[in-house]
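Section 5.1 Outputs to date
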Amino acid sequence: MRKLFLLAATNIFFLSLFAQDPSNSKKEKKEEKKQRINAIVRQEEEGVLHYKKHLAFGLKLTNDGYGGFMEYAKVKSLSKTYLFQLDISERKHAKEEKIQASTPVIYGKINFFYPVKLGFQEQFNFGNKGNKNGVSLTGNFGGGISLGLLRPYLVEVEKGNGVTEFVGYNSPDSNYFLNGPIIGGPNFGTGWSNLQVVPGIHLKSSLRFDYGKYNEMINAVEVGVMAEYYTKKIPQMINLEQKKLFLSAYVSLVFGRRK
């Protein structure tokens, strides 16, 4: 009798589990999300700030390089937000061409060029406050300081008797840099001890399409243009014009969290 009772109780327990409709749980979650979004929309219509700040990160592809940035934002009103950004990228010259060796070599490259930018921007909301599809359009404009980090481009050359060494364009034995014999290009650890810093300024303007407007998570695409001006000309390639002013266009993927 006891075994029959335990068996019946076990069957009832498992039947009750299977009897629950998993679709109900999904419907409840969707309904909760819908109600939360409607509440946020009503708050915006009444002029109440629901999110007051955010922390975001971005991956950026430019017409002459790539990079990433970190962003902290402070919401001032429904239409205006202050953005503080740290941006790090690598800028490449249009004439760079790799030559195959033991490791690829870019012949004539003088320096790696890493712009590091610390900036402030104002973000203006162009989208409607009651836009329930969750997509917002904002415009960003601002600028700040730039630091151009120049890391010497060193190539590995053979000096005879099996002796190899990394040399650069400004090395005492720079004739090897141009005439070789070149064995291979630099590795990630070369050149950092001779890093140079060139100060400058930058301006930036962009449009951001945020697909998570009424969500704690930020999922956005940003397109924009940027101008950088440095206090001296940036040597990137030999026998080519060196510039102080750089203009670029970019597209970024932005992700983060609002609070």
